[in-house]
Amino acid sequence: MITMIAAAGQNNELGKDNDLVWHLPNDFKRFKQLTTGHHIIMGRKTFESFPKPLPNRTHLVITRNINYAKEGAVIVHSMKEALELAKEDPQPFIIGGGEIYRIGLEIADKIELTRVHGTFEADTFFPDIPKDEWELVAAEAHEKDEKHNFSFTYETWIRSTSQANE
């Protein structure tokens, strides 16, 4: 099962200047809980936004640059190549950025989306989820509090059965 995981604002904002535009500690914990032990597939800019590789995950970094090399990353040049390397993983995660999510939307089986309730200035966006191809199967709302400046909802989307069989 290929899963995309993201946090996006009300207008699908993901980030600005290669960084998130909010800080949600519980979302970071959820991301860690879901992705630990799995392959995480990302673009080069997303990988470079981390201070260091995330522990206990295999980082598959998609880049067009054939000379790119970074410690802690397995470099690939296509989503197909990334998925081939992750084929033994029962649930590889596509973690961004915007261009990688657009590619992933065509092949993913599941989306774990944290919908941040606010609008933000951004330069990177999550693709629109086609409602005729995807079904919202779970939603868990969280109010803003002393650690979270915005309310947010964890949403789980599954590709519709009718689409999966086409």
Tell me, rounded to a whole number, the average pLDDT: 94
Sheet bearing the most strands, described?
Answer: 8 strands, mixed
* C-alpha Rg (nearest Å): 15 Å
The N- to C-terminal Cα distance equals 17 Å
Beta strands, count: 10
User: What's the shape?
Assistant: globular
| Strand order in the sheet with the most strands | 5-4-3-6-1-7-10-9
Instruction: Give the oligomer, counting copies of the same chain as homo and different chains as hetero.
Output: single chain
Structural class estimated from helices and strands: alpha/beta
Walkthrough of the structure:
It is a single chain. The model has no long low-confidence stretch (mean pLDDT 94). This protein is 21% helix and 32% strand. Strand 3, helix 2 and strand 4 (58-62) form a beta-alpha-beta unit. By secondary structure, it is α/β, with parallel strands linked by helices. The chain has helices at residues 25-35, 44-48, 79-85, 98-105, 161-164; strands spanning 3-8, 13-15, 39-43, 58-62, 73-76, 93-96, 110-116, 124-125, 134-142, 152-159. The strands form 2 sheets. It has an 8-stranded mixed β-sheet, with helices on both faces. The chain has a two-stranded antiparallel ribbon with strand order 2-8.
